[in-house]
């Protein structure tokens, strides 16, 4: 197998779907493992990849092993598979709060480790991943794993000390953005727009605004100013958002996520 996922929950399924949609690997080149045989059979039917309830089988047979269990499960899972992981295999971590040093300590030997922080929009090919690697990883190997992650979004290589900040800005942030979209849609319903259409209006406005930032490369403040007509509707909304502390709420919220990741 080219790639094996140990643990197949929300994040692993998003990544697998993204990889399959882009055709980076075929179904036959991917395996995933998890504790429940029934659940894994369902995933196999859903995604078409090989599944197993045997972590060792998935680890032993994969060139690239993605550890996609909860951070609290890492040590247990690594101890289970470590005797089967050779020095040529690449271990990719996606957990918040777990350093490469901690992961290497669980392996108890020199191991090629690539630490990543992806996010769930990988499912639709619009993920964002921060990535770093330890010295045992060859440049060519890092390039290959980067390409795999690029198959479902954008990738930035960062120093490991910045990964906690990546959790705040992109790993966790889809949740904050969904809350914003929900609230915007509620306001649309208040204004008389049917619920279904309200989500389309709100989500498309967020998608379009994000694309404007990425594609024009203009400062977000300048783009905001261009929406605000003098004495118009938008500046009134901006005044209320400032009064209610939107910026401060977002900064405090993202920083809270960063702090949890730092102290995990
Ligand atoms: N959900 C997200 O948006 C993101 C999650 N992450 C990271 O991804 C990892 C997984 O998170 P989620 O997918 O959200 O969690 P999840 O709970 O959806 O998935 C974890 C999976 O691991 C399985 N599992 C539990 N014990 C196991 C064992 N002993 N062996 C094999 N599999 C086992 C569970 O059955 C479950 O399917 C975490 O480390 C998290 O920090 C990273 C970025 C974003
Ligand atoms: O909530 C969490 O801990 C994970 C890490 C980033 C997004 N979800």
3D architecture notes:
It is a single chain. Helices cover 54% and strands 14% of the residues. By secondary structure, it is an alpha/beta fold. It folds into 2 domains: 3-163, Rossmann fold; 173-262, ProC C-terminal domain-like (ProC C-terminal domain-like fold, Orthogonal Bundle). The protein has an 8-stranded mixed sheet, with helices on both faces. Helix 2 links the parallel strand 2 and strand 3 (50-52). The site of 1,4-dihydronicotinamide adenine dinucleotide has 25 residues, from helix 1.
Describe the secondary-structure layout:
Blueprint: E1 3-6, H1 10-22, E2 30-33, H2 37-47, E3 50-52, H3 55-60, E4 64-67, H4 74-81, E5 90-93, H5 100-107, E6 112-117, E7 127-133, H6 139-150, E8 153-157, H7 163-171, H8 173-190, H9 195-216, H10 220-227, H11 233-243, H12 246-262
Parallel strand pairs: 1-2, 1-4, 2-3, 4-5, 5-6, 7-8
Antiparallel strand pairs: 6-7
(2S)-3,4-dihydro-2H-pyrrole-2-carboxylic acid is lined by residues 96, 167, 171-172.
Which properties best describe this structure?
EC 1.5.1.2; Rossmann fold; single chain; binds (2S)-3,4-dihydro-2H-pyrrole-2-carboxylic acid; 264 residues; binds 1,4-dihydronicotinamide adenine dinucleotide; P5CR_dimer; amino-acid biosynthesis; 14% strand; ProC C-terminal domain-like fold
């Amino acid at each position: 197998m080219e790639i094996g996922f140990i643990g197949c929950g929300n994040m692993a399924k998003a990544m697998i779907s993204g990889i399959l949609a882009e055709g980076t690997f075929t179904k036959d080149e991917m395996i995933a493992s998890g504790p429940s045989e029934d659940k894994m059979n369902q995933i196999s039917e859903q995604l078409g990849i090989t599944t197993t309830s045997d972590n060792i089988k998935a680890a032993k047979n994969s060139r690239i092993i993605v550890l996609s269990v909860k951070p609290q499960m890492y040590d247990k899972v690594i101890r289970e598979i470590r005797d089967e992981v050779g020095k040529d295999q690449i271990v990719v971590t996606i957990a918040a709060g777990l350093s490469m040093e901690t992961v290497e300590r669980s392996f108890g030997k020199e191991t090629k480790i690539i630490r990543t922080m992806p996010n769930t929009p990988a499912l639709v090919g619009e993920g964002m991943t921060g990535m770093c690697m330890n010295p045992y990883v060859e440049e060519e190997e890092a390039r290959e794993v980067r390409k795999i992650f690029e198959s479902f979004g954008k990738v930035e290589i960062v120093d490991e000390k910045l990964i906690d900040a990546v959790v705040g800005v992109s790993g966790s942030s889809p949740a904050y953005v969904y809350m914003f979209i929900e609230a915007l849609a509620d306001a649309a319903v208040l204004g008389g727009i049917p619920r279904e259409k309200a989500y389309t209006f709100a989500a498309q406005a967020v998608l379009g605004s994000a694309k404007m930032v990425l594609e024009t490369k203009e400062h977000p403040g300048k783009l905001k100013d261009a929406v605000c007509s003098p004495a118009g509707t938008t500046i009134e909304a901006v005044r209320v958002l400032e009064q209610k502390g939107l910026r401060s709420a977002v900064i405090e919220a993202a920083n809270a996520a960063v702090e949890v990741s730092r102290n995990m």
